[in-house]
Amino acid sequence: MKKADLKKYEKLLLEKRAQLIEELGLLKKNAMGSTLKEITGDLSSYSYHMADQGTDAMEREKAFLFASKSGRLLYHIDEALRRIRNNSYGICIECGQPIDAARLEAVPHARMCIACKEAEEQRKKREA
To answer: How confident is the model at residue 1 (pLDDT cuts 50, 70, 90)?
Structure first.
């Protein structure tokens, strides 16, 4: 892969990484780091209705799932940046063939070519 292409993908990955870190910070600040009382600004000492507590728990769970998904994506982006540094970016980890540029544009952290990724998905379906 050409140096100019590597720089382009590196920039794309770094931008996506910064965006994810910002989103994770907002999730932590808004949903995971505060109680229902802090979110609503209610200063009363009365207990909350069970439905309110259930909604709060559901919102926290959703925030946790989003953070978990973003964390996994952040890991894959970091791995792609590592592959750029060691000159293995854009090469399928399964078959060793170059990954198509259109795939890297759509999924810049891709580790596999389309054929190998489809084969992996089929294996997962059979195992499930």
So the answer is: confident
Q: Sign of dihedral through CA atoms 81, 74, 96, 102?
A: negative
Residue 39 has which token pair?
A: 């979110």
Amino acid identity, residue 20?
Answer: L
Distance CA 15, CA 5 (A): 15
How far apart CA 16 and CA 65 sit, in angstroms, is 19
Angle at which helices 50-85 and 3-27 cross, to 10° = 160
Task: Write out pLDDT tens, residues 7-17.
Answer: 999 999 999 99
**Cα gap 80→87, rounded to integer Å:** 10
Q: Where are the alpha helices (DSSP H) in 1-128?
A: 3-27, 36-40, 50-85, 101-106, 114-127
DSSP assignment letter at 48:
P
Amino acid 37: pLDDT:
57
Rounded CA separation 24/18 (Å): 10
